[in-house]
Every structure is written in structure tokens, then in C-alpha cells.
Amino acid sequence: MSDYPQQQSLFDEPSAPLYPLNTIELLDYLLEQNRIRMVDVKLASMLCDNQQKEVFYIVLLLCLAQQSQHSCLTLREVDWQNPFNLRQSDFTKNEGNIPTTASPFNEGFCATDALNLLANHNSVGPSKPLQLFNERLYFSRLADYENTLATRLLAMSERQLNINTTLLSELLSEYFPANPAIDTDWQKVACAIAATKGFSVITGGPGTGKTTTVTKLLAILQSLYKTAPLSIKLVAPTGKAAARLSESILGAKDKLSVISEDLKALIPDSAQTIHRLLGVKPFTNKFKHNSANPLHLDVLIIDEASMVDLSLMAKLIEALPAHARLILLGDKDQLASVDTGSVMSDLCQGLTLGKTPSYSKARCDELNALCFNNTPKLVASTHSDFKLADCIAFLQHSYRFDAQSGIGQLALAVNTNNSGVLKFVEQESIEGRFNDVILDYDFVAKPIEKLVKNAATHYAHYLNLITQGASVAQVHEAFTQYQLLAAVREGDYGVNSLNSRIERALGQQGLISVSPNQRHYIGMPIMVSQNDYQLKLFNGDIGILMLDASGQLKALFIDEQGNERAFSPARLPAHDKVYVMTIHKSQGSEFSYTAMVLPPLKQASMGINRQLVYTGITRAKNTFELVADKKVLQLAMNKSVSRASGLYERLKH
Ligand SMILES: Nc1ncnc2c1ncn2[C@@H]1O[C@H](COP(=O)(O)OP(=O)(O)OP(=O)(O)O)[C@@H](O)[C@H]1O
Asked: 0.80 cut: is pTM over it?
């Protein structure tokens, strides 16, 4: 993979770019307002070689795109007359250096001009710091990751698999007996898809049976390869998600009555994190397993794949042996990864609820033969030019939320931006028919006190268990029964303020004892916010502070295998208290009772969107409570975000 300049060299004194005054004013203004960083200015100066002001500003725009987790800058989508999205108010302020122009580009400058400039520039091209692909500009590292990923996924999907299709069809009928109540059994189709391709994706909303389907798939695969059982590994991006996957697979195995104990034993039920599987090399961003030292496995299942960023996915795929099968599981509509990219949603582009995915004619025939005795249930409709279209399975029916459940309906209303369904949920909830959903729109009556009081009441349960000397596992189990989620960090409705208020309320009730000079106390729940590869504690891990047998205060964690791990608070990597967590951090977790608070309208324009609210709702297992101004909910439903990426384009015919 090609290199781009090391950060240290950016701190060398740059020579001042010789640009017209108005563009310098604009640059000063953007720096002063923290819209751009000095480090980006230096990088852009270096890469443009002070030759062309346009290239300098285009690189700045690329830096901004990357800070928003886009993989690239889509040149056709830039507003060249106002590329930094300045508003009218930026020009009418009374203080500071007010720019006289919103754009450093000449009038009429457009994407084609940008492409022409970049195509002939020294810094752009193979093995150069920047790359162009299909009218998108990349830092080379990310272009290389995308390219690696696309090439490997395609190779895996095209590999010829030696499968006994008669046996596969029999097994599918055995595991998915005909059900007159279901027209097309999408779980059966998903199994057929994943059994016949080296790469597949199984996506679906909460409770649509992803784990059930993959458990049956693994039983089917082991039956197909009976003479030489497959080595199967299960992974998830976080410890929490891995623990959940282990639990779900174990539950799904127990429910599988059709299979023998011998076969069950060949289906693993212990998942690990991706980092653990790849083996982290301390103090580097490299892994022990890579293309030169591939993993030893035949099948890899990645759950919660929407949380996996581009770079990790590329590294994982590079570490797979050539013969391995890869199956991605997840909900395409959840928030994209914290880091750059949106691999899962890129691969699932175009899937629509209620519609058959765009399979080719040959694939429809193959799946109809395998699943439906040649009855043409699947019909090729729209032609897809996406080369992996035949590898994608979409589960659409939720088995967890029945018609009496509001959580599923609310998630559907938000995900499809359907105000009719939302109205239905509101009505059913008011009239008591949906008793799993509480919608508190009463934002005017200052619901914070109520929210804090409710949270304190719920948290009393695990704190009482600590006092009663319950086991670490019991305390952790009780803690995860309830979780308050917030969309933002700052402000009255943000994580920081709510955490302090709940802590104060618990202190006032005598449930915890917080001393002003001590950061840590018995009962404090914490979330790690930084990976520590030495201690094997990772961003998102949750611990609770308790006394150990010798009376020492320890942070106690339960790892994905269910083992207790104790750390002295002084040794912990960066962490925060977690009576409230951001919706981002809750991804991959599930709570029996989930409460979610959205900020008031004036704070909500930034960062509140459909994927965020949908992710929050779908964390709830039994009860979901929303505290929000209804206008903010509507605003979120109307705003769907997507990340710039070229992955889909690289996988087109
Ligand atoms: N075909 C089916 N018929 C009846 N029940 C089913 C079927 N498939 C799944 N279920 C049940 O629905 C529930 C959810 O299934 P499962 O855990 O497999 O879904 P999931 O998509 O993995 O959920 P999530 O990712 O939201 O946890 C389970 O209780 C499971 O037993």
C-alpha cells in the first residue's frame, strides 16, 4: 500500500501560500472558527506543493470529508461556490476577520475543472499520496483499503464451490419446513445464498432471525462437509457484541430440535472480538494475522458488521486464507462505524423493505430450485449492475416483535420515515395496547427531573445487589437491564450533564457514596473510551467498581467468554461513568429497558438523524421510552445520512 506524508513532517514550517487576499481571509476565518485544523492546512500546502490554490483547497475539503468519516471526497457533490458551507451569519458577524467570499474557487469552477487539475497533479496517482477513482478523491491509504476489499470480496464471491446441491436442497427442506403462513421463507433463501457463495451478507432488522438463520446455516454446512468438519469462527466488533452473539447462538442451538448432539458440537457458540482473532501487535495498528500469516479457519462469521470500519474490514479480509468463506451479519440501517467508511450499507445499497433484492435470472432459478422445488417464488425484476447482488440476503419479517409490540413498529416508522405508522404507534401507546413503548413528548414541562428520577430508580436495583454481596455476574446482569441513552454529549440533555445529575440523585438517596476528592467509588459504572492492548480492555467495555475479597476497590469486567476480570482503578485506560451513554456507544448492546433522550430543537440540527434514532430504539428488548420534542423526532426521521465511498462503484459491472 502506498504511503502518504507522515504527520511529523507537517509541523515543519510551511512556506506561506501566495494566494489572493480574499482566499487568505477565508482561510484565516476557517481556522479562527475551528472549521479547519492547522495540521490540515500544512498537509494541503505540502501536497499541493504551493503550485495551485485550487488543489490546496480541494485537499482541505478532503481532510474535512475524512474527519466526517467519509472515505473520499465526491467531487460532483461539492458546492464549488460555497464549499465550506458558510452561512449568511458568517458574513454578518461583528467580530473577527470576516471573509469577503465564501469560495476560494473562481466563478464557474466545477467538478470537471477539479478533475482536470487533479488528474495532472504530482501528488495524485498510483503510489502517490492522493488517488482518483470515479470522480472521487482519496487519501491513498483509504483508496487502497477499498480496492483490497472490493478485489477480495469479488474473488470470494466468484469462487466455485464444490457443493452437493441435492443434499443442500434436502437439508434446506429439513431445517425450513414449508409453512403455509409464510409466502417466501427469506431465512431459507438466506441459507441457500450463504451456502452457495464464498462471500455473503445476511442483513435484517432486529429480531428478523439473523442468528437463527446463521445457526441453521452452520449446521447445514457441517452436514455438507461431514467427512472433514469445517473450522468456524464467530467474531463481533466489540466485546459486548461478541458476548451477545455467543448468547444468541447458544439459544438458537438449544431451539434446534432437528439436529443431533454431534452436529451441535460442531457449531461454535463462543464468539470473540475481531481484534482478538487478528491478534493485536501492541503499540501499532498492525495485526499478527495478515496476508503473510493468514488465519486458520474455513468459515468466518462477522456479526454487527455495520460497526466495522473500512480499514479493519480490509485488514480482516486480507488475513483470510484463500479458501475461506465470509458471512457478514448485521442491520444495514444502523449507524455506520465510528471510524471511516460504511462497508455494510455500501454492500446493501438498494435493498427496500417489501421488495425482492435484485438477483440475476440465473440466481433466481438456482435459489428457486434449491428452496422451492423450482416454483418461481423469486423473480428477477430490476437488473442490477452490482456484482455482489447475488450474495446479499435480506430478512424482513421480525419474529421478536409481534403485532402487539410497539418497539418494532416504532423502529419501522423511524426507519422508513413513515409518519402514518408513527401516529399509529402513538395512538396504540396512549390507549395502552402498545405497553412496551412510552413516548414522552412533553418537552415543555422540563422532563429532566422525571428522567433523572426514573434512571435513579432503575439503577437502585444493581446498587442494592452490590450491597447484598451478589456476584459480579449478577451485578452486571442487573446493570444491563436498564440503560439511558443520549444523542449528544453537551447541554442539559447530553451525556455529561445527565451523568452528573443521576450520580447526584443516587448519592442523595444514599445508594452511592461519592467523595469530592475521589474519582472512583463503589457502584460506579464505567465505560472504557480508549483501547488498551496490554490490558486487553477496549473502547466500549463496561466495568462496575466493587470491593474485591481483600476489600480493595476494583473495576470488574466480564469478558465475552463470561470470565471476570478485575483491575485496580489506577491502571484503567481512559474511561467515563456510564449511567448514561451515547447512542453511538450503545451499538452492539441490548437492554431490557432502554430510555432515550433527544436534545431540544435548538441543539438538534447537528448530528441527529434517522440512523441514530433507529439504532437507539432497536437497543430495547422489552421496553422503550423516548423523551424528546416531537419536532426533533420528526427532524431526525426526515434526515438520513450517508457516507461518501467508492466501494459500491468498484463492485459494479
Ligand atoms: N423462523 C422463525 N420462526 C419462529 N421464531 C423465530 C424464527 N426465526 C427467529 N425466531 C425467533 O425470533 C427471535 C429473534 O431471532 P434472532 O435472535 O435469530 O434474530 P436476530 O435478527 O439475530 O436478532 P437481533 O440481532 O436483533 O438480536 C428469537 O427468539 C428466535 O427464536
From this structure: yes
